[in-house]
Structure formats: C-alpha cells, structure tokens
Design the sequence.
C-alpha cells in the first residue's frame, strides 16, 4: 500500500493506493476527515483508521502539511534571536523598497519576527566575492547568548554579509553557538539559501528558525505515532518546490514546507495534463479555507524563489527565498464567511469557519453563512449527500443566516446566497488573472483543471468569465492534492549566486560551478540511498541583460558548456525574455544564479484506465433537482452519480455530477464527456451535446 495525506485548513485528505505483488494498481480509495489543530497528527491518524490502513503493509507514506505556514501566519513559532555582521542588525527592519500602497500616509512596515533587542552583531566582513576583509571575532558571542537565554530565546538565526558566496564565517558562528548552547536550535542562512539579496536571505533564515522547533516537534510526533502503530516503510514530506523530501531533510529545512500541501495538486494537474494531451493548463484548487491557482505551460509548473507571505495590496509581507511552485492564493474557499461592511457592501472571506464550527449547515454552532451554505441553498449541493452523507444539513438555520445578512441591503436569503457565490467567483477570477493575463498569457489558450472540494462547483462559471473553452474535473477531485503527492519524486534545488557575463567569462567557469553543484547533489542523494543512475540532474540559469535588476530563468543545453553551447544559451535567454516581457535587447547577457535541480526518481502512481461496459449514460442518472445557475437562470438539472459514469459517456447541461465530497455544476450550454481515466471533460458549446 501507498498512502498520501494532505492537512488543509479545514479538512485532512487521504489517498490510499493498493498494489499487487507485481506493482499493478488494484484499487484507489479516498478519505476526508476534519483537520485537528493544533495537534494535526491526530487528524492524519484518524484518516488512517477511517481508511482501514494496515500499517504493517504500508510501504510508502507521503505527507503534506500546513504546520509551517500556520505557525507563520498565526505567529505560533518560538522566540527567535538573530546574529548578523556588525553594522547590519537593522537589515531585517529596513526591508525591501517594495511598498505597494504608495499613497497610504498611515502605512506601517510589517513588524519583524525578531525585535531589535534580539538582533545582535559580531565583528567580521567578507567582500562581494567572499574574500575576507575582516576576520571573524567570536569573543562577544558568549555574552550575546547569555542575553538570549535570559530573554527566553529558543532558536537563533545566523545571517552574515555575503555568506551565500563564502559560508566559512557563518558556519563558524553556528558551530560555536552549538558548542556553547547545545539545547538551542540554530539556523545558518547558507544552509537555507545560497542566493544573494541581504534582506531576503535574512528574512528567510529568521522565518526558518522561527518555525523550526515547532515543525521538528510535529514531524517527530507524527513519525512516533506512525511507528507506534506499526509503520516500517518509507516516509516523505511534500516540499514547496514540487518534490518530496525525507523526514530528516524536512526537519532540517522546514521553511521548504511553507506551501507543502497545495503544490501536490499543482503537480497532479501537470501530470494529468501531460497524460490527456493538455500540457498547457491553469490549475485551480478550491479548498475549505483558500483557493490556490498556478499556470502550467508545456507540462511544467513555474518554480520561483521570489516568494512572499502575507503580501497584500497594502503590505509587502515577508520574503522567503526558497524554491516554490509559483502559486497565487486567496482567502476564498468553501468555509469563507459572508459579511457586510460598515458601508453595507457584501464581502466573502478571507475569514473562514474552518471545520469547527464550520458552515452553518454543519449544525455545530456556526452562525455566519459561508460559500458552502450558499451552494447548498441554491440547490447545487444535494442535502441528502451533504458532507458525503455524514451530516444532515440544518437548512432552516442556513436560510435564517442568509436572511440576516441580506437584511442589510434588502435581499432575501436566496438572492443573498446567489450574491455570495457571485462575489466568491469574482475573487477567484481575479486570482486566475494574476497567473495568466497579468503575466502575458491568454487564458483561452489553456484548459482549466479544477479540484478540491469546491473546484468542480465553481469551475464552469469561472471558465466562462475568462472564455476558457475547456474544463477538466479530475478523478478523486476532492483529494487531488493528496493524489499528486503519490505522483512526485524526491527533489532538491541547488542555487548559487555567481555574476558572470556570458560574453566575457570563460565557458569553463560556469561549467565548473555546475560540476560543484552536481557533486553536492550526488552526495546528498547518496545519503538518502539513491544510486547515481536513479538521479536526474538538470541545469538552469537565472540571467538578465547587463544593467537590469531582475532575471529570467533559462534551461542550460545538455552536454559540454563550450562556446557553441553558450551561444545557444544566450539565444534561449533572448527568447525567454521576449516571452516574459515582449521584447529583447541587443545587450550583453549576464548570469546571476546557477540553478541545478536534482530529482531522485521513485515509483509513482499512474492513473489506471477505467473499465467500459457499454452502459447508457441514463443508467448513471439519479434524478432531477431545481438549481439556481445565477446568470444562466434557474433550471431543472439532471443529476448523475459520478461513480456510475464510465469512459465514452456524454451528457449536457444543465446538470449536476455528484460524488462523495464534491459536485460538478454543469451550466446550460456546456457538454460533459468522460475520458479513458474517468476524468470529466467540460466543453463550452452552445446547446450542449446529446446524451448517449
């Protein structure tokens, strides 16, 4: 057996894959249970028990968690100290000149995670090439650590100037701290990122140190609980870069888990697109608390190290310099609460009802209506199959809640619920525009792959708004992020800042740098038990025109980096720059970062084709329900059981396709076909398509 679990803000999802002795898939089952903060591992074990997982037969366990992002956003890390180069203690507070709200005279900078009295300095200095300008002086370190102890510090971040180029001084400070104070957690910036930019490196080291004890305790508890139940297989954690890592590696570098859960779905969407011949897709994950989306082109999601948390139109947020699949995330999910501001305007989110008390329909004491309640009241969700049939929804309470909200602007309950769905959709359309139109991509050139508990309910209307012609609702859509974790390899990213002009630097200099990174990758993967032939290495550079500030990532041609290969690399950069910014320059090109990606290949889940019996689609029809389709009107929708649909079947909207934890809403004018793997393919065609 192989199992993946994804801990979300509202639900914990589990996918169980059963195999025979030859590795052939004999069954895939899914479970969705309530998330159990702050002891998230309880929800994971509950999902295991619900799925009847036999621990002694479990060979592979992959885990995605929100523990890191939750600790950051909820400020539930530990008291952290920072040690930096003399004269640079205020880099963390000065920050980056990226204030988004220029005309806000009440603007306040984000409060640093480390207050000034816990930011200390040591005498030392390296130049930009990593050469020693001033030797390191550790004589004052014991007094600094005494002050930290007195202040209750539990973690120390070390970030010295230009340590990305030469980490010797930084490593010496970290080693001395470990010798003088073995109980404290130490994070050196060079162990987290080897890219330049002082503020971003300092912020990343601090945030990693801030969450490291909590993340370590969580992973230790999870491992211990699994082992107590008899688990003896391989355990991995989903990383933000789209790969998985061992528990030990995740514990050592917890900031790499900052987007651990959502990226699983993005990887699954990329794999699905390649499988069904749709390599260019926009992936949309609508969960209980948030909606996440990313653009996938050529079957590959974009990886970035320019990542910020808590960034809004009014605040720049906090930088994290770690490889992350480029995701846009907004506070709009099934549990997002509808509310009215002082001016009488209706809003949806970002506050969520979570799993406790949850939407009003749960009957657990929730009084504020949510997007889920709106979908229930408008007929999109079947009251008889609410929460998979586990909950009988409190419909009178739902109607009363929307009546109360609608009274502020003179609308009845159903009209208010319709407005909530419309606002939620508008918020999600804006997020989809951020990953497509705002980056020069026409959404009409992409298919929309929608998943999560709410993806299938909103996908068709979102696609219509952006003129996206095709929507894919994958199999196991409600737990698709967990499914994607079983489609992942172990991945590590090795990035080094090295400024090299490609027209003047010897080609061997760049090749030597990649050779050094490859040797480091080989050692790391060897420690994890991967033979060299199972590790795939690919090279990229972050390059720019001479005089520019920011870069474009470009793949490096395979083979020796001779003069001809460098010329090809320059041409590839011109083409990538033209795609990103619509123009290219006749100017020298310089490399800023060398980026080597190491992938340790493991056996991955492949979606098996579905069996075909030749039954008519009418055998999957379970009835008719009155549904409010908003701008498409109110219709009697044909209702189908997704589990009874098989490849080759087609149907036309208005319709609903129900499964255990979600429902696909098919408006009039859309047709649905079932592909060979059981995915629903929605096409926007006037008049739909005939049933067969």
Sequence:
């Amino acid at each position: 057996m192989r199992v993946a679990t994804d801990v979300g803000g509202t639900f914990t999802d589990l996918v169980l894959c059963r195999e025979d002795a030859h590795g052939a898939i004999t069954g895939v089952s899914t479970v969705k249970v309530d998330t159990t903060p702050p002891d998230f591992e309880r929800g994971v074990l509950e999902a295991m028990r619900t799925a009847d997982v036999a621990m002694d037969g479990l060979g592979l366990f992959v885990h995605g968690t929100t523990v890191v992002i939750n600790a950051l956003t909820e400020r539930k890390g530990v008291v952290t100290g920072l040690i930096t180069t003399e004269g640079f203690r205020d880099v963390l507070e000065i920050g980056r000149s990226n204030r988004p709200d220029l005309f806000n005279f009440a603007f306040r900078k984000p409060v640093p995670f480390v207050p000034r009295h816990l930011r200390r300095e040591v005498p030392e200095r390296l130049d930009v090439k990593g050469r020693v300008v001033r030797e390191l002086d550790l004589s004052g370190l014991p007094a600094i650590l005494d002050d930290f102890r007195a202040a209750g510090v539990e973690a120390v971040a070390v970030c010295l100037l230009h340590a990305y180029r030469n980490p010797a001084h930084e490593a010496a400070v970290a080693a001395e701290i470990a010798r003088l104070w073995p109980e404290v957690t130490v994070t050196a910036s060079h162990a987290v990122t080897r890219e330049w930019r002082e503020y971003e490196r300092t912020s990343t080291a601090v945030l990693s140190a801030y969450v490291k004890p909590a993340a370590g305790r969580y992973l230790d508890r999870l491992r211990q609980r699994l082992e107590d139940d008899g688990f003896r297989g391989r355990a991995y954690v989903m990383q933000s870069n789209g790969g998985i890592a061992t528990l030990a590696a995740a514990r050592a570098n917890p900031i790499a888990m900052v987007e651990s859960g959502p990226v699983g779905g993005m990887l699954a969407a990329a794999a699905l697109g390649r499988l069904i011949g749709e390599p260019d897709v926009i992936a949309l994950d609508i969960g209980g608390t948030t909606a996440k989306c990313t653009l996938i082109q050529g079957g590959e999601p974009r990886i970035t190290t320019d990542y910020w948390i808590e960034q809004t139109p009014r605040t720049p947020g906090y930088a994290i310099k770690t490889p992350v699949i480029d995701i846009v995330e907004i506070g709009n999910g099934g549990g997002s609460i509808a509310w009215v501001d002082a001016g009488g305007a209706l809003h949806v989110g970002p506050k969520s009802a979570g799993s406790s008390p949850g939407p009003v329909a749960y009957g657990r004491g929730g009084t504020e209506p949510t997007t889920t309640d709106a979908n229930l009241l408008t007929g999109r969700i079947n009251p008889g199959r609410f929460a998979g049939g586990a909950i009988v929804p409190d419909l009178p309470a739902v109607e009363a809640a929307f009546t109360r909200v609608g009274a502020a602007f003179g609308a009845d309950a159903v009209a208010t619920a319709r407005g909530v769905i419309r606002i939620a959709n508008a918020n999600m359309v804006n997020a989809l525009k951020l990953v497509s139109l705002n980056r020069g991509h026409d959404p009409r050139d992409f298919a929309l792959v929608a998943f999560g508990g709410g993806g299938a309910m909103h996908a068709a209307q979102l696609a219509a708004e952006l003129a996206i012609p095709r929507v894919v609702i994958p199999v196991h859509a409600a737990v698709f992020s967990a499914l994607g974790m079983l489609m992942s390899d172990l991945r590590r990213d090795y990035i080094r800042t090295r400024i090299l002009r490609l027209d003047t630097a010897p080609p061997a200099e760049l090749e030597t740098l990649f050779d050094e990174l490859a040797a480091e990758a080989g050692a790391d993967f060897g420690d994890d038990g991967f033979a060299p032939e199972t590790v795939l290495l690919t090279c990229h550079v972050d390059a720019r025109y001479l005089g520019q500030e920011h870069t474009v990532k470009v793949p490096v041609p395979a083979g020796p980096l001779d003069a001809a290969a460098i010329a090809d690399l320059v041409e590839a950069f011109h083409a990538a720059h033209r795609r990103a910014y619509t123009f290219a320059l006749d100017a020298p090109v310089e490399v800023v970062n060398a980026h080597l990606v190491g992938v340790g290949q493991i056996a991955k889940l492949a979606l098996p084709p579905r069996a075909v019996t030749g039954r008519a689609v009418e055998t999957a029809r379970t009835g008719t329900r009155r549904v409010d389709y908003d701008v498409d009107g109110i219709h009697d929708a044909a209702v189908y059981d997704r589990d009874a649909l098989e490849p080759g079947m087609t149907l036309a909207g208005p319709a609903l396709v129900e499964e255990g934890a979600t429902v696909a809403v098919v408006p009039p004018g859309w047709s649905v076909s079932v592909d060979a793997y059981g995915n629903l393919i929605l096409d926007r065609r006037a008049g739909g398509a005939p049933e067969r």
Q: What stands out?
A: The first strand starts at residue 2 and ends at 7. Confidence is low (pLDDT under 50) at residues 686-692. The radius of gyration is 26 Å.
